[in-house]
Amino acid sequence: MLDSNPDWLAHCTEIKDLAKSLSKQSSMHLDQASLFLVTDGQATLSINGHEEHIIFGHLIAIASGSVIQLTKTNHLDFSGYIISFNTYDMKMKSLCDWDVNTTTGYYVQRVPETVVADIRISLAETTDHLNTTIKQYVLYHLLKELDPEQQTDEYTLEQRIERTVTYMQQKYNQMMTRNELAAIAGYSPSYYSRKFIDIYRKTPIEYLIHYRIFRAQEMLLLTDDLSKNIAKKAGFDDVQYFSRQFTRIVGHSPRKFKKTVAQYRICFLSSAHAEIAIAFGVIPHCVVVTNSLTPRYQKGMFHQWGVTLLDTPQYVIPQDIVVQQQPDLIISANLTEDTKQHFRSAAPVLTGLPHDLNSLICYFGELFNKAGQATQMIDELTAQVDLLKNKIQNHISSNSTVLYLRVEELGYRYVGESSCDTAILLYKEIGLQMPAKLRTNEKSFNSCSLQQLEEANPAYLFIEKRVMDYYNADLSLSTLQQSKQWANLDAVKNKHVFYVDTGLWINNCSVFGKREIMRQIEQSILGGAYSTTQ
User: Fold this and answer.
1) Residues 6+ apart with CB under 8 A from 370
2) Which spans of this chain does the record mark as coiled coil (predicted)?
3) Whole-number percent of the chain with pLDDT over 70
């Protein structure tokens, strides 16, 4: 995939904080080749006009001249590094271009968590004054992780067959034949068909028909277009043939499908989305969860309704396990393009969902044909928020400040006023005040030193000890609690420090989760009953 030459030398010119750089400007123009390493969280970026969902462990190689932009609804609940570098041709004794041999100008690869941990430790102190040795170590450590392009004659049988699947997915709305697909694989038509059936349990043409129907289902759910128009967009010239194939595969005609979607086997890749479905009376077939981040109330709810839980490590989507559940529909907020295409071989996929809770409720209300219930649900939540807001305003002074601080393995970050649903609840809906010194980059999780914390001196402090499968924040929390800055805080002196759960406050501010968060806020600020010590 990448242009690697034994005669060139790479020189790291700069390493910067990725989230901080993106929060300062909505668009970045890279004047050097760069590597982006995501060390925590996830975000959706536009890279050279292509939307890309990046998650923990992603290493993105990006060519010089590329343009990086934040998506409009993006919350910066992630961290990482930008490693910029130049390359020199030792033979020519001059600068040379280091290129990513892709049409998009970038390449995304997942690296092991051990590599991420090594880089995090190497850059633990600061990126402002790194010596050359550290910068070169980081650069070459990551360059070694990038896969070189594989030559065509080295492709395995499975990879050759996969190339034809990719071709079908990219050009599904165009005419194609078995002979054409066999030529792409480099096999005779009969041998190609036999091997395709061995891998995918159906003929190439039957696979293509299923893929087209899955895409047609997505269009039926996402648009109000007529079936005859969707048939053509999905690659069917004959509308009657499309209707017969749709009914055979889906079990309902295109006209009835949209009205009965709530009856299908739906796999949710977000427990927060599954929670909204249950609120509408739609029981998920299965839900992808991370056990350490699933709140107790939610586990009980899923168990009560007989929902199959697919437990998985953080930021890992168990593609094969999801497919084995044989879902009729897969729903996720965001997916990488590779994951999306993998799932589209098995079922229609709905992704790119709204981020804020009210928009999500409206989205699922439309999807499940329960728009009236969605309006009622939003009204009830709004009334509960207003009631809590009035209680708190009558209890604390108008100049009291509240800070939501995240404790991580290598430091601290405070949560900006619009950076997640819980922050919006605290600062926008309830109307609590962020310390004036920290009112910047409201969509970001912002770095916070102990000195900044002391200067901000909040009256109330919510502490989230970051839960991740890949690191432990116990030492950072202990360092915080034993510091002189901690002892000087008004929130500490007045016992207004409250410890909250990552799985609930960050991942599940949903229909039922939001009510639980409000209950904890009320107990904390009004009664101090939630000041659990850690």
Assistant:
1) 262, 280, 281, 364
2) 371-398
3) 94
